Amino acid sequence: MTLDRPGEGATMLRTFTLLLFCAGLSLGVTPMVMPSQPELWIESNYPQAPWENITLWCKSPSQISSKFLLLKDKTQMTWIRPSRKTFQVSFSIGALTQANTGLYRCCYWKETGWSEPSKVLELEAPGQLPKPIFWIQTETSPLPGCNVNILCHGWLQDLVFMLFKEGYAEPVDYQVPTGRVAIFSIANMTPESEGVYICRTHIQMLPTLWSEPSPLKLIVAGLYPKPTLTAYPGPIMAPGESLNLRCQGPIYGMTFALIRLEDLEKSFYLKRPIKNEAYFFFRALKIHDAGHYLCFYYDGSYRGSLLSDILKIWVTDTFPKTWLLAQPSPVVQMGQNVSLWCRGPVDGVGLALYKKGEDKPLQLLDTTSIYDDTSFFLNNVTSSDAGIYSCHYLLSWKTSIRMTSHNTVELVVVDKPPKPSLSAWPSTVFKLGKAITLQCRVPHPVLEFCLEWEERATSQKFSVDGDFIISNVEGKGTGTYSCSYRIEAHPNIWSHRSEPLKLMGPAGFLTWNHILNETIRLFLIIQLVALLFVVLWIRWKCRRLRIREAWLLGTAQGVTMLFILTALLCCGLCTGVLTEETEIIMPTPKPELWAETNFPLAPWKNLTLWCRSPSGSTKEFVLLKDGTGWIATRPASEQVRAAFPLGALTQTHTGSYHCHSWEEMAVSEPSEALELVGTDILPKPVISASPPIRGKELQIRCKGWLAGMGFALYKEGMQEPIQQLGAVGREAFFTIRRMEDKDEGNYSCRTHTEKRPFKWSEPSEPLELVIKEMYPKPFFETWTSPVVTPGSRVTFNCSTPQQHMSFILYKDGSEVASSDSSWASLGASAAHFLIISVGIGDGGNYSCRYYDFAIWSEPSDPVELVVTEFYPKPTLLAHPGPVVLPGKNVTLRCQGAFQGMRFALLQEGTPGPLQFRSASGNSADFLLHTVGAEDSGNYSCVYFETTMSNRGSYLSKPLMIWVTGLLPKPSLLAQPGPMVAPGENMTLQCQGELADSTFVLLKKGIQEPLKQQRPNGYRADFWMPAVSSEDSGMYSCVYYLDSAPLAASNHSDSLEIWVTDKPPKPSLSASPSTVFKLGKDITLQCRGPLPGVEFVLEHDGEEAPQQFSEDGDFVINNVEGKGIGNYSCSYRLQAYPDIWSEPSDTLELVGAAGPAAQECTVGNIVRSTLIVVVVVALGVVLAIEWKKWPRLRTRGSETDGRDQTIALEECNQEGDLGTSTDSPSSVSQGTSVEQPVPI
To answer: ∠ CA(426), CA(430), CA(435), 5° rounding?
Structure first.
C-alpha cells in the first residue's frame, strides 16, 4: 500500500506522532522510551561567557561502562576509555571557534555494542547560547480537559527558560530551575491551547543574550468522535489472501489515516474519504502485516478525532489451538450443572462445542456473546452427557487457514462423588501414650468429612479439614477406619467410602525398653534415698564422736561421688541418648523479587521490579543484573520494600535479575533470579518441587513473577500441557495425585496473560523428577507452640527410629542447619535445632530430613512457624454467639486488616493452632462442629503472610466460648427495678445453683461478656453506676465452675432494662370490640412492658382519672350513653409512684348508632309486628264466639229440661273450664228451675 501524497504523509506523520502520544491514554498504549539513551550536557568555568571554555559531559543512564564515544556531525568521532568503569566522562572542547561548531551526540559501550546516541546538541557561533531542545512529556495526554507537561532542555545549568506562544509578544511562562531542564505545565487543555510554542534561554546575568528559539506545535487530540474500524471478510486470513479495512466516521469530507502499532513510521496510511468512510485494501497479505490496527480522521486544520478501538489482524496459515476447561470439575455428579470454558488466542471469531461421535456442534457462541466469563453450559447433566468434548473456532467467512487439533476434556458423570484417600500419621501402629492422626483428603473443596469405625457402626466423627485424632486409651482405638465426604452443592449426598485403613496397637505386652526404663527409674529413687540416709548418718556420727577424722570425711566424699555418678548414669539411661542442641545461625533473610505492570495484556510496555524483605531492620535494597551489573539502590520504605522502574523493555533489559537487602552489619542472600528474555515475552518462570515419593502426592511449584497470570505445566515428550491453572497469584501449584514410575521425567512450566490476546512466557528451566528409594519421613515438632512472639526461644525436634543418622533442617525449602550422626550412641537418632531469639524474619515453613551415606528420608511434615507482632491484631467473633448449647455448630470469624493472608485459630491450653485457613479476602471462618464441653475456653486468632517468612499479626483479643446446658440455669433480677432514670445506679443480681462459681453477665447484641465475677456464695451482684440510655437492652447471665471450667449453665431468662426518664407508653385494646351492645359491657385492657406497675384509665371530657387497676383491666358500661368516647391509659411503677408513663394511643368506644342502631330498630319492628298479628287473631276469635250466643238463647223453649241442663253444662264447660258445675245427683233429680246463663 502506498500513500496518496507522500509529502503530506511525512508531514502528517510528524504531526500525528505527537497526537498518538497525546491519545495514548485512551488506547492504553505507552510510547516507546529509550532508557538506554545517554545524557549530554555542557559545563563551563565562565558563567557569563560559557563559549570561552567548554567541556562536554556524557552520562550513561543505568549502568557503568568502559568506553564512551563523542560524535560530531555524524562523521568525526572521539572516544575515551576511562581507567575504570564509570557512569560519566568529560570531553574537553576548549574555546568555541568556527571549527568547533556543529551537531554533537555521545554513546557508551554496552555488552551488546554501542548504545543509542544522546539527544543532539547544536553548538553555533561563539557568543551564542546553544539552541535548546523542546518536547512533550510522553506520559501525559493532551486530551480536552487534561494537563500537559512540556520539557525544555537548555544544556547548561542556571539558565532562565522562557516559554512563548506564536502570535503573543509576552511570554506565557518562565522558570529558573536548578538543573538543565525546565518543565512547563499547561492545565486543562482546550482547543484554544493549540498552537506553536517556543522555548528560549538566556543567562541570568546577561538578559540580552538569548539562545535560538526552539518551536513545538501542540495539537489537542479527540476533538471529534472516534470512528469504527472493521475487517472484510474477517480479521483472520491466510497469507496471500486479500483484506479490506474500513474506517467509518460520523462526519463527511474528512481525511482518514490507518496505523499499525507495531511499526508506527512504516505503517502510516492516508486515504481520501468516500463520503464519511475510507477503505484500506491489502491485495496480498503477508505475515508481517499481522498486528494491531487503529484509525482516525482529521480536518484541514489537522484537528483530529479520537482513535478507534484496536483491531487485531491475524495472518496465519494454521489456526492456533483452543483450550477447554470444565468448571467446577470434569468429574461431576448426576444432576449437577457444568460450565465448559473455551478460550483461544484469537479474538473476533465465534466458538463451537463438539462432542466426540457427533457431527453437528452442540452449542454455538458468536463473536457478540463471547466475553471473559461466558462459557458453554450443560444443565442437569445425566449419564448421556458423559464423553469427550472439544472446542473449535466458528468462522463466518471463507478462508484457506488449516484447522489444527484441539484440546479435549473428558466429562465423567457419577452418581456419587469419587472416594477420598485416607492415611495415618505418623504411622498405623499406636505407640504408648501417643495418638494417631487420620487424614482424609480430596483434590477439591469439601463441605464436611465423616470418619467411620467399622467395628462400631454407630461411631462417627466429623471434621471440616479432614483431620481426625484417634487415641488408644484402654486399647479402644484399634480397628478399621474409612472416611467419606460431602460437597456444598449437594450436602445431602455423601461420597463413596475410602479404602479401609487398619490401626494396630502395641504387641500386647510392655516392650523391653519400657521395662528397662521403669526399672532404672525405680533404682534411681532407691539410690537417692540411700544417699540421704548416708549423709544423715555421717552428720550424726561426727556430732557424737566430736571428731573430724580424715578417713571419715574421705569416705563420705567417695560415697557421695559414687551416688552422683550412679544417678547421672541412670538419668542417661532413663532419658535415652543425650541429644546435642544445634543452634541455628540464621542468615539475613532472603528478599522476594517480583514484577508489576499497568498493562496486563502487554506487561513489557511498562515493567517495575519490586524487592521486599521480611526483616524490619532493612535499610536499603540493591538490584543486580546478570550477577555483577549494579543497576540501582533504593532506600527501604515503611513496608520494607523498594521499586525499580524499568519502563518499556528493550533488548538492553534482557538478562537475569536478583536483589539484595542491606542491613547495618550484613547483606542478605540473593533473591530468586528473575529472567527477562525478550521485549514482548513474559519473564521466564521458576519451577521447583520436593523429592518425589512413590505412591504419594507431589506438588510442583511454578513461580511466575507477575500477578494475574495463567499457568501451564508441560512434560518432556508431550506437546500439550498436562495441567492448566487460571490466575491464582504470582505462583501456582500443580498436583500429581499419586507419584508412579510413569510420572518420572523432565517437567517445565509457562505463564500466559489471562485475557485475550494471550501472550506466553518462555518455558522454565527443566525439572527432573526421579523416584528414589527413601527412608520413612521423620517425626518433626516444636517443643512449644509454633506461634511465637519476637525474642522467644524455639527448639525443633527431629527424630527417627533409625540409628546413626544425620539431620538437615530446611526453611522454605532451603537448608539452614545440619546435625551430624553420633556413632557413640545407640538407639534412635534425634536432633534438636535451637533458635535462641526469634526475629521477624525467622518465621516460615520448616521441615527436616535425615540421611546416611547414600539414602535420604522423605521430608517431614512441615511446621509453620509464625512470628507475631508485625501486623495489627485481628478481631475474632463468634456466630451465632459465644454461648452455645452442646451439639451445635459455632463459626469463629477472624477479621484481619489485609487480603490474601493465612489465618490460624488457637485455643488456650492447646500447644499448637487448632486450624489453618488461607483466604483471598481479609477474613477466614473456622467451624467448630458439634461442640462439647471440651470446646469451652478462650480462643484467639492470628493472620500471617506466606510469602515473607510468615510475618504475623498480634494475637486477637481472647474470645471466651461457653458450651452451656451442663448446669441448671440461673435467675436474673434488677434492683431497684428494670426501669431506672439516666444517671442513677442499678444492680443486676444473678442467682446460681452452685457455690464458688464464676458468673458472666451478657447483653443481647454484644458478643463479649460485659462483666465477670467470682463471689463466695451463690449470687453475683453486677453493679452498674450512672446508667445511660446505651445501657437499655436485654440482659442474661450464665455461670460456670472454676474447678471444671468446661461445665457451664444455660442462659438465664432474659431481663429487659429500661433507662429513661419516662416509662414507655402502654398499649390499650377493647374486648370483645369497641362497639357497645344493649346490656353488654366492654373490657379495656391496658398492657405495659414492665412488671410491678399500677394502671389508670382516663376518659376524654373527665378531669379526674376514671379507674385504677393493678392488672390493667377496666370494665366500661354504657348506662345512659356515658360509656361512649375516647379512652387512654398510663401506668406508674410501684417503686416510683411519682413517675407516670406516657399515655397510650387513644381508643374510641362507639354506642348504639350507625349500623348497630339500625340493626336494633329492625329487630324491634319485627317484634312489634308479631304482637299486632297475635292481638288481631285473638279479636277475630272472640268475635266469632260472640256471634254464637244468640242462637243458644232461642233454643230454651224448644227443648225439655234435660236438654237445657245438658246445653247448660256444655256452655259452662266451653265458656269457663275453671268454674265448678252441679253434681250429677242434682242433675239426675230433674230439677226444672231455670237458672240464669252467665255470659
So the answer is: 65
DSSP sequence for 592-614 = EEEEEES-TT-GGGSEEEEEE-S
Nearest-angstrom CA–CA distance, 459 and 453:
6
521 Cβ contact partners less than 8 Å away, ≥ 6 residues apart: 570, 574
C-alpha span between 248 and 906 (Å, rounded): 66
Model confidence at 567, pLDDT cuts 50, 70, 90, reads: low
Please name which of 281, 285, 220, 286 lies closest in space to residue 247, comparing C-alpha atoms: 281
DSSP 348-381: SSEEEEEETT-SS-SEEE-GGG--TT--EEE-S-
- The two beta strands, 148-153 and 181-186, are antiparallel
Beta strands 1055-1059; 979-980: pairing state: parallel
Which of 345-349, 465-469, 605-609, 1151-1155 has the lowest average pLDDT?
1151-1155
DSSP 1136: -
CB neighbour class for 615 (10 Å; exposed up to 12, middle 13-18, buried from 19): buried
Among the listed residues 987, 1133, 979, the one whose alpha carbon sits nearest the alpha carbon of residue 1061: 979
* Predicted pLDDT of residue 1022: 92
Q: CA 806 to CA 821: how far, in whole Å?
A: 4
The rounded distance, in Å, linking the Cα atoms of 1009 and 1007 is 7
List the single range of 547-551, 719-723, 775-779 with lowest mean pLDDT: 547-551
Round to whole Å and give the CA distance between 342 and 361. Answer: 14
Name the 3-class secondary structure at 189: coil
Any idea which residue has 464436611 for its cell? 448
CB count in 10 Å sphere of residue 612: 21
Beta bridge partners of 409: 389
What is the spatial distance between Cα 1214 and Cα 179, in angstroms, rounded to a whole number?
149
User: What are the phi and psi torsion angles at 790 (to 5°)?
Assistant: -60, 140
Look at residue 93 in the predicted model and tell me its pLDDT. Answer: 87
Pick the closest to residue 593 from 606, 614, 610 (CA basis). Answer: 610
Contact predicate 681/713, CB 8 Å:
no
User: Mean pLDDT in the chain?
Assistant: 77
CB 211 within 8 A of CB 161: no
**Residue 294 CA to its chain's centroid (Å):** 39
Q: Using the Cα atoms of residue 139, residue 141, residue 145 and residue 147 in order, give the sign of their dihedral.
A: positive
Report residue 853 as a C-alpha cell: 551415606
Count of all residues that appear for the chain in the document: 1239
- pLDDT above 70 (res 648): yes
Read off the C-alpha cell for 971: 435467675
Give the pLDDT of residue 27: 38
Q: How many CB atoms lie within 10 A of CB 664?
A: 7
Alpha helices in 576-660 (DSSP H): none
Place of cell 489485609: 898
- Residue 891 amino acid letter: T
Instruction: Count the neighbouring beta carbons within 10 Å of the beta carbon of residue 905.
Output: 23
Tell me the three state secondary structure of residue 277: strand
Q: Is residue 868 within 8 Å of residue 789, measured between CB atoms?
A: yes
What would the pLDDT profile of 487-542 be if each residue is shown by its tens digit?
A: 776 777 788 888 888 887 764 334 444 555 566 767 777 877 777 777 777 767 66
Whole-angstrom Cα distance, residue 951 to residue 940? 17
Q: Which cell numbers in the block locate residue 51? A: 563559549
In what helix (H) or strand (E) does residue 102 lie, and over which residues does it extend? strand 102-110
Three-state secondary structure string covering 785-819: CCEECCCCCEEEEEEECCCCCEEEEEECCEEEEEE
End-to-end CA distance of the chain: 146
Q: Residue 412 and residue 386: Cα distance in Å, rounded?
A: 5
Question: What average pLDDT does this structure show over 1148-1174?
Answer: 65
Q: Is 73 left (phi over 0), alpha (psi -120 to 50) or beta?
A: left
- Residue 115 grid cell: 548504545
Coil/strand/helix, residue 933? helix
Measure the CA angle with vertex 100, ends 97 and 105; round to 5°: 150
Query: In the numeric block, which cell numbers belong to residue 36?
Result: 538506554
